[in-house]
Design a protein that fits this description.
The protein is mostly helical. 77% of the residues lie in helices and 0% in strands.
Length: 138
């Protein structure tokens, strides 16, 4: 895998995260959010980001169930929207994208958490995603 490909996938995850996070607070359709982002800033959604966004939206129920099942003493409502948006992307990848290694999905999620959340959330997200990945192997 070339470094350019890695960067584009990382950036795609970041694009997907930004739109999915915004969707948590905005009733607009995903298409409207993308259109507004394109109008307000130099924004071009990558194909991989689009695949992640569509995948998370189309599989929201099973993704949230997988996350919730692996929360110890937590509920989805108690998790910050930042962390939840990042975990949803990673869980979609773990459950549905065979061409992305589980370790890459988890590592990419942890990198986003380090940027957009707190250090204590890193171990929390790592634990939840690790448990989800073990469940998916069964």
């Amino acid at each position: 895998m070339s470094n350019t490909n890695f960067i584009s996938r990382h950036q795609s995850r970041e694009e997907a995260f930004a739109l999915l996070y915004e969707k948590c607070y905005n009733d607009s359709s995903t298409e409207e959010l993308i259109e507004n982002a394109q109008l307000s800033r130099d924004f071009e959604l990558s194909a991989f980001a689009r695949e992640l966004i569509d995948g998370v939206e189309n599989n929201a129920e099973s993704i949230d169930k997988a996350i919730e099942k692996n929360l110890k003493g937590w509920t989805l409502n108690r998790i910050s929207k930042v962390v939840l948006s990042i975990m949803r992307i990673a869980v979609f990848e773990i459950m549905h994208l065979d061409n992305v290694p589980v370790s890459v999905s988890i590592n990419e999620a942890l990198e986003l958490v380090k940027i957009y959340s707190t250090e204590k959330d890193v171990s929390f997200v790592n634990g939840v995603l690790g448990a989800v990945s073990r469940d998916c192997k069964k």
